[in-house]
Design goal:
GO terms for molecular function: ATP binding; glutamine synthetase activity. By secondary structure, the protein is α+β, with helices and mostly antiparallel strands. The chain is built from 7 helices and 14 strands. Helix 1 crosses helix 2.
Length: about 350
Amino acid sequence: MAKIKLEYLWLDGYFPTQNLRSKTKVEEHENFKGTLEEIGNWSFDGSSTRQAEGGSSDCLLVPVAIYPDPERVNGWLVMTEVMNADGTPHVSNGRATIDDDNDDFWFGFEQEYFIMDTKTQLPLGFPVGGYPAPQGMYYCSVGGKNTHGRDLVEEHADLCIAAGLNFEGINQEVACGQWEFQLFAKGAKLAGDELWIARYLLDRLTEKYGYYIEYHPKPLGKDMDWNGSGMHANFSNSTLRTCGSKETYEAICEAFRPVVKEHIEVYGEFNDQRLTGKHETAAITDFSYGISDRGASIRIPLITVNKGWKGWLEDRRPASNGDPYKIAARIIKTVKSAKI
């Protein structure tokens, strides 16, 4: 028998921006294979996470995905859903609202973020009491003058790949100290699971660097001439992947027009500071779509058009602090409502 460490992860009840929580269970197993069938549910004190009252504080953690933990000996990362004591989904459980049981929807998320120095409370590369050179040379840069935080970013990429995530890439972003990673999954729930696991690995990694990750979509202030951080949602279903029809794509895009408010409500807190119509964004009150248009609400990728209108769409509005579960759930609901 060997002892294994199971790190149970869940989202708390803070609103509108939930936080990751986790705790470790040590169990004895013989020939553990790393499957959900081998582990059980757990519970936690919901009164400490804004998910229950003190007089009836137990909430259930139900495992939904498991990955090897690349930083622990005999360690595993367990993504869970929060359930009420009676087994029904907790009100904070965005994963349970996703209507994609057949995994017809594929999602690729582009997670932008700033790496912050815990001592200065500033993004890497920012001098105390001043500013670095204006943005322009930071995007996809190389060299110590314009590139900051590469060691952490490279180590995070290695950890995600070692954990078995479908990790697709990294790049420095437009602002100083700003980076991005990309994940893709066939299935909306799986895409959300993997993004939260990747965020957990990134946040935990900062503990040994003296950094922290800032997911606020406009951490440098809404009036500053610096790009904000988004989490662009690339999505498709079997219709978008195979239809070969410009009219079908336009009908799906038009389905988003009357529900702008409903999407913005779940696309992340403080997103009004980022979606200003500047810095590669559409205004938060507007809705637009266009081929290869990074200033539109929804971009139709050029490669989709070149393949005969077979591919995917990119919703550029989600903020970097958005919940991928809630974002995916809302996108799926809208796509399914399209009159095609």
